Amino acid sequence: MGELELGQRIKEKRLSRQLTLKQLAEMVGCSDAHISQIERGRASPSIATLKKIAAALQSKITDFFNDGEDDEPVVMTPENRKTLTLSRWNARIQSLVKNAKDKRMQPFFTTIQPGGGSHGSYQHVGEEFGIVLKGEMSLEVKGTKYTVHQFESFYYDSNDPHSWSNDTDKETVVIWVVSPPSF
Question: Which stretches make up the HTH cro/C1-type domain (predicted)?
Fold first, then answer.
């Protein structure tokens, strides 16, 4: 999925909730021109902005990427993972479950390229756990920056402002779990 398809899904959800661009922009805290650019696929939102859009539309980020299939396999093969990615993030976030609806946690297989990351702090209800399988990542929670190395794990309250990035010149791979599903 690219920026254009994401933008179309956001627009569909906005229209189904009978919101104008201006109303959604006010709820998100940005300009209506920026929302319009996102909807037309001309701007790539940060995770923080996309999280605010999803909350304003009473959705989760994964709802914009979900194809609507509800059948959950017991075993999920790599080729069946739903990928969440936008060029601005420079990261590929793959859901390790087909649909997080009615689940208590949401696991991801995340590959972060050099320079990739959330590009801004965000927060939401819940908790997050992860383990770095390859490389290292920077994690900031409540203004404190941590470096998480290969095979080290992290855990924090998602209600606290947090951001993440790969500040190295090598790819980083992380297994990430969000509970409850809110991404």
Answer: 10-64
